[in-house]
Please model this.
Amino acid sequence: MPNDATPKPLDALFLDIDDTLFSTSVFADKARRAALDAMIRAGLRVDREVLRRELDEVISEFSSNFGSHFDKVIHRLPVEASAGLNPAILVAAGVVAYHETKWRELKVYDDAYEVLRWLAGTKLIRGIISLGLTVKQAEKVIRLKIYEFLTPGAIYFTDQIGINKPNPKLYQRVLDDLGLIANRVMYVGDNPRNDIDPCNEVGIITVRNRRSGRHAQTDGNTKPTYEIRDFYELRRILQTDFGVTSTTDL
Ligand SMILES: [Mg+2]
Model:
């Protein structure tokens, strides 16, 4: 890990959301389980594991952002499974349980929350560059209760900008927009191909969060400047290599 005696200049830090601030995979799994259990409680006659397999197939065939997974699942089952039941009610049971779990369980890692609060007391611009549908990602920022720690004008969603990861133009666009210089900006993400490679290409300082998620074991074409396993490590890097201090240090 780089560690020179003189602190390096840093003006801004941007974060990925999914599988960086919280475990998207674990959370989605819990919410889907809750939804399927609720559909069975509402009368759907099917083995829980069979139902789970159908849902997984629907998600992989129609993508996770497709809107009516549960309708598709019911259509795929033998007619006996929902005979005499109103399919709209079964779907509603699933949707409500999914959203209730989401409301209840969605939160950032404890160390991420603590370090974001610390970051809010620094002079750094604190932004988000996140892949996904605008409304869904914006909802996450609010539900995760991190908005108060961010710089309001530094929040970017790929769907809203119209440039998707891993296109390096996405990151260049954010730099241009805020008048930032690449080598004085840091990006923290979990996906080596979407987050690390394009930022390296643009010249941004990269931090790979290698904590969990689908990409923990994959490698990109380039190496990140730093690797972390939790946000305390990020704070240490900011303090040691960049001389960042926070009003919360006092
Ligand atoms: Mg991610």
About this structure: Residues 183 and 204 are 5 Å apart (CA to CA). The chain has ten helices and six strands.
